[in-house]
Here is the input.
Amino acid sequence: MKNMIRSTYLKSGMTQKYYSLANNFRSRYEDLLLQLSPVQFSKFRYKQLFNRKLNLSQPNTYSEKLIWLNLYWKHPLKAECGDKYTMRAYVQSHGYNHILPGLLGVYNKSSEIDFDALPQKFVLKCTHGCGFNIICTDKNQLDINQARQLLDTWLKTDYSKNAGELHYAAMTPRIICEEFLEGLSGKQPTDYKLFCFNGKALCVLVATDRDLEGHTDKYDFYDLNWNRLPYYTSSLHIDRQIPKPATLSEMIKIAETLSKPFPFVRMDMYEIQGKAMLGEMTFTPAGCMSPGLTDMAQNTWGSLLTLPAPVA
Here is the structure.
């Protein structure tokens, strides 16, 4: 009955206008709040998502501690490794050049890209944010002018102002072109996201059946012995078993080596033609606020995440 009533209300043009104005006001309020105080912005967003107050003086849950790290642990290495280009030097310094996708070009603006010189399949990424990707599977079908416009718009975007993920503000906007990593059935390859706490991998979030924009509704958590974990609400009652990747032990070793300096980082990896590959290092998943996680995940991870001394 509640959904039926809501649907009836939304047929009214005045009601639709009201919801649009309310959402626009909330967005402007959040933008202003973020400019004035990232702490107050975080408290407001947390209250909206979790319906309880954010505890920053004694954070306990995973989300609370991630928010604390975002606000108070501004170590330059976090920005270096969160940047999709400068991360590569960090990975290479540990002898892992072979797990990085091939780099086809680095550009400061879209006009520098010579599309004629690129292969039929490639990926363009702006390195200073999340989701700034153009995945090209057929260059003949690519609208190059539109791609340039999109890239230039992204280059002008300060991603730190989107959800208050502050380390993005320290990154230099640029574009990289990487080789296309082939998945199955024309989709992106399965994404294995290893959650690492103080240099130790704890579990793996598996994202399957992703489309070329990275969208999926299929997320499953596994421990390091590949037993399912009740950590994500949407998959609690779904009978689904994802095959264990053959390179899992290698992924764990790589993730733990690269994550050592960090209280928390999520290592996003793939298995391509029997080889482990690294996509990126993620420090603020879901803007540090993941309402889709179960209380067990929030409390278990929160107990394992040891906060360091603040770094301004």
